[in-house]
Amino acid sequence: xxxxxxxxxxxxxxxxxxxxxxxxxxxxxxxxxxxxxxxxxxxxxxxxxxxxxxxxxxxxxxxxxxxxxxxxxxxxxxxxxxxxxxxxxxxxxxxxxxxxxx
Length: 102
Prior knowledge:
DNA-binding, 0% strand, Trp_repressor/repl_initiator
């Protein structure tokens, strides 16, 4: 899997992931995300989830997704491009979780 963005410091991301894992174990996800994300950022993640769900299910064209979710074509394209960088097994898992099918 190739990374399509540059990170300031990979250790910072790893620290975040480890803290997230700990929040999952201790059932503190809601508090965790309230600490790290603004209300707008949480809304953006919700939108991104719906974009990915539609892209994986292949039930609508990108234009139809854009119109249904009232977002920009660039936002849909960024989501589509990110899917191209991920391995098929992970995408199958994500599709199963989001759409109930592999």
